[in-house]
Amino acid sequence: MxxxxxxxxxxLLGFSMYPELHFLLSVVIPIxxxxxxxxxxxIIFIITVEPHLQTxxxxxxxxxxxFDICQTTTIVPQMLxxxxxxxxxxxxxxxxxxxxxxxxxxxxxxxxxAAMAYDRFLAICNPLRYTVLMDRKACSMLVMALWxxxxxxxxxxxxxxxxLPFCGPSKINYFYCDVPxxxxxxxxxxxxxxxxxxxxxxxxxxGPSICIVLSYVYIVxxxxxxxxxxxxxxxxxxxxxxxxxxLLYFGSCLFTYIRPMSSYSLDRxxxxxxxxxxxxxxLNPVIYTLRNKDVKRTL
Length: 299
Hints:
Layout: E1 9-12, H1 22-49, H2 56-85, E2 89-91, H3 92-125, H4 130-133, H5 136-162, E3 171-172, H6 179-185, H7 191-224, H8 229-257, H9 266-290, H10 293-298
Parallel strand pairs: 1-3
Antiparallel strand pairs: 1-2
């Protein structure tokens, strides 16, 4: 019978089983992180100082950049420490803190993308009442609500994980502390944890996805009724950047979490998680800068 204990620390295996990738990751990850910080800080800066960008759409975009900075900072510095020092250990307390904040920021970004889709829906389908329905107070309330929702979600997952018993070698086959790899390490009853994970993933994953799909169904129907091709092109162009980010984010997140535990493959999943945890936060400012006329005009 295995001993059930609370470990003092974990060993994050990361990509140690792929030594040929060590040099590549040591170069790519720091560059990606620097560009992520620079790009998102820049987006926040120009939205703050430029009066023409003081609109709901750019208010949400500024929050998206903030979430991207926080999300990558939750995992990348620890990952870089492991890459350059060769010591892959992380204390149990740090692991649980990292788990909480990563779930917090990943969930907040998904809900924010849904709020941004709702904003585009109101702007295109109900333009006459847009400024009334989506004023500064409404925007602030939406952001506050998503913060509270994701904080509750992160607290539940972290609390359930903290109470798990762990047996044997405390080696996490991942590059940061997340729910699936920690569940794979536990030797206790996982029925409650897996049920909560599935329910939360459906609510936090499929819920915003359905809201986004419905918003764009109404948007497409409204745009197709426009008489001018120039108006149609302008309406679609305001949504193109958001759709690109949505596909990158939800495609990788839903693949990682909305599955039964039996189908999890940590070796494969950690490659997929690189998309939404490291690559997507870097690409978001690029996508919005290159495809957004207002931002390019400000530049």
